[in-house]
Recover the amino acids of this structure.
């Protein structure tokens, strides 16, 4: 059973950098066929994909956040991490890590869906 | 950019009733790239359906997905008390890579 667990500060000051880590158990971040993703949810709102990383360390980011996001991988610890720089109150949200699993589509590009999620961690941006 | 719209915003039903949730894409999408998630208060989302109609592992058969093009539907045939939650549709695009979610439909009593 794959499990993901987010960790990191629950409070970050404006203009600073938000840093979170997701520890994966029951599976390997080095496995092929999976991307390791960050998704956030503003209070009382819907879900927003932040970005993800593959075992090759290829990264993909939401264009709306690309200038401030960095996702990295630590295969030795079976973890991946999120850094969000220059945060504002608008970055206050529940942050989830998730595994995006590949599904082969015959005659078309592969698709992905989120099959495992962490429990989430609330990050508040406030002075 | 493909925008997903879900309706209704809130669906008020009773246990045992049938729930029909709609997800509409701003342009036609392949059903292979459409998924549905359930989220209960204080919990992470849970995958229900992928490929528009394939139930994820462990999902009861009262949940079913259908649709194509721009219109997709999640149906809960007979609501159980534990089904009262918020449901999100999600689309994957491969070029450029990204995911978008609908705003959600809340199913409440």
């Amino acid at each position: 059973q794959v499990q993901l667990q987010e960790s990191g500060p629950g409070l970050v000051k404006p203009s600073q950098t938000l840093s979170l880590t997701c520890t994966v158990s029951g599976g390997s971040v080095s496995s092929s066929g999976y991307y390791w993703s960050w998704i956030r949810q503003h209070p009382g709102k819907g879900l927003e994909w932040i970005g993800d990383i593959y075992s090759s360390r290829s990264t993909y980011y939401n264009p709306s956040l690309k200038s401030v996001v960095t996702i990295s991988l630590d295969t030795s610890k079976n973890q991946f991490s999120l850094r969000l720089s220059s945060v504002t109150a608008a970055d206050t949200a529940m942050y989830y890590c998730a595994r995006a699993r590949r599904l082969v589509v015959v005659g078309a590009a592969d698709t992905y869906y989120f099959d495992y999620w962490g429990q989430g961690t609330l990050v508040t941006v406030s002075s | 950019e493909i925008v997903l719209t879900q309706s209704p915003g809130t669906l008020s039903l009773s246990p045992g009733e049938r729930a029909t949730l709609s997800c509409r894409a701003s342009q036609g999408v392949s059903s292979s790239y459409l998924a549905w998630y359930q989220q209960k208060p204080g919990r992470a989302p849970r995958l229900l359906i992928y490929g528009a109609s394939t139930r994820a592992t462990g999902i009861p058969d009262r949940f079913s997905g259908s649709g194509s093009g721009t219109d997709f539907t999640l149906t809960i045939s007979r609501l159980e008390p534990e089904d009262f939650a918020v449901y999100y549709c999600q689309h994957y695009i491969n070029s450029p890579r990204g995911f978008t979610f609908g705003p959600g439909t809340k199913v409440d009593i």
Q: What stands out?
A: The CA atoms of residues 12 and 108 of chain B lie 5 Å apart.
